[in-house]
Specification:
It is a single chain. With about 170 residues, the protein is an alpha+beta fold. The chain has six helices and six strands.
Length: about 170
């Protein structure tokens, strides 16, 4: 392995989720550095999925814990059977009207493949995040991020947002 390869891996590993700025669903910059000191759940979402009803649980979780240094960040993605075909405007409207979503939603991105968004490259690659490699297996996969910006755990899409292990993590010091 060359010294350049070692150095580039080292640089990648030093990144945290706080190094990312993304576009929110309204096209405004959303800087993750503003979330330092909070526990964060990052979840890829879709409006036409069998798991779409998880929006209800995500919103309840956010409402119950948003004042306790916890935030949910939703990333709509159309990577699984075209289950998020809408524009950012339509997604925002759908989330508000059907589930009363108040947690921050970002612009639609790709969470897999060659067009994978940089934040998901970070989340899914141990060489970048220093903790774990994973693959986004379906809509509503959850990444639990500690207050220091490191990944705590990757949670299966089928695990409901209000699962006891998630609530226990939120409440842990």
């Amino acid at each position: 392995m060359s010294i350049n390869c070692i150095l580039s891996q080292s640089v990648e590993l030093e990144k945290s989720v706080f190094d990312f700025t993304v576009k929110d669903i309204y096209g405004e910059d959303f800087n993750f550095s503003s979330l330092q000191g909070k526990k964060i759940m990052i979840v890829n979402t879709a409006s036409k999925c069998g798991l779409t009803s998880q929006y209800k649980g995500l919103e309840r979780l956010y409402t119950n814990f948003k004042d306790k240094n916890f935030i949910i960040i939703g990333f709509p993605a159309n990577n699984f059977l075209w289950q998020e075909p809408g524009s950012n405007e339509k997604i925002a409207e759908f989330c508000k009207e059907n589930y009363g979503v108040t947690f921050p939603m970002m612009s639609k991105i790709s969470v897999k493949g060659s067009s994978m968004h940089p934040i998901y490259k970070f989340l899914t690659d141990k060489n970048r995040n220093g903790v774990v490699s994973s693959s986004v297996s379906w809509n509503f996969q959850k990444y639990l991020i500690n207050e220091d910006g490191s990944i705590h755990k990757v949670i299966s899409p089928r695990t409901k947002p209000e699962d006891p292990k998630i609530i226990e993590w939120i409440n842990s010091i």
